[in-house]
Amino acid sequence: MVPASDNNYFKQLEGTNTIQYPKQSLPIPEVGRYQLDVEMDDCIVCDLCAKICPVNCIDIESIKATEVIGQTSDGSKKMLYAAKFDIDMAKCMYCGLCTIVCPTECIVMTNQYDRTVFELSDLTYKFSDMTAEEAAEKQALLDKQLAEKQAAKLAAMKQKEGGA
């Protein structure tokens, strides 16, 4: 058996013709593509991962914030709330495109490969922790702000017409 400190992945496979799963497991390569994970504190809800996904397994709904709501670990400003951020791992083809395109590197592939479930719906991972009530509240705040801006714009136009 090859020592565990050996970094050569193919040498680690020597002697693993038969393994006693789940007590034993195959060594996992560093660049393996497995389970997706999202660090929501670093997500700016840019939707690039959902747009590039060839199988549409990422479902994102965003709500524009009325002000800056925080910063990511790399200093990017967060201007959108994630009302919904779901990844359906049953559809995922593990291509890794979503991890490459992410500007804040909040979506990563972990080394977890064994996610056995009894219900297919259990393979849809919900990363957003915003409830429907919170999403409705944030949407109402945005709608109010937009209505106020529209009213101010109309008032300015009327004043301009009256003064001209």
Average pLDDT taken over every residue: 85
* Helix content estimate: 25-40%
Provide the gyration radius in Å: 23 Å
CATH topology of the largest domain: Alpha-Beta Plaits
Strand count? 7
Observed structural traits:
alpha+beta, Alpha-Beta Plaits, 2 domains, three-stranded antiparallel sheet, two-stranded antiparallel ribbon, 7 strands
Question: Helix and strand layout, with pairings?
Answer:
Blueprint: H1 9-12, E1 36-38, H2 48-52, E2 58-64, E3 70-71, E4 77-78, E5 80-88, H3 97-101, E6 107-109, E7 124-126, H4 132-163
Antiparallel strand pairs: 1-6, 2-5, 3-4, 5-7
What does this structure look like?
The chain is α+β, with helices and mostly antiparallel strands. It folds into 2 domains: 1-28, no CATH class; 31-133, Alpha-Beta Plaits, CATH 3.30.70. It has 4 helices and 7 strands; from the N terminus they run αβαββββαββα. It has helices at 9-12, 48-52, 97-101, 132-163, and strands at 36-38, 58-64, 70-71, 77-78, 80-88, 107-109, 124-126. The strands form 3 sheets. It has a 3-stranded antiparallel β-sheet with strand order 2-5-7. A two-stranded antiparallel ribbon has the order 1-6. A hairpin with a 5-residue loop joins strand 3 and strand 4 (77-78). The radius of gyration is 23 Å and the shape is elongated. It starts with 8 loop residues before the first helix and ends with a helix. The model has no long low-confidence stretch (mean pLDDT 85).
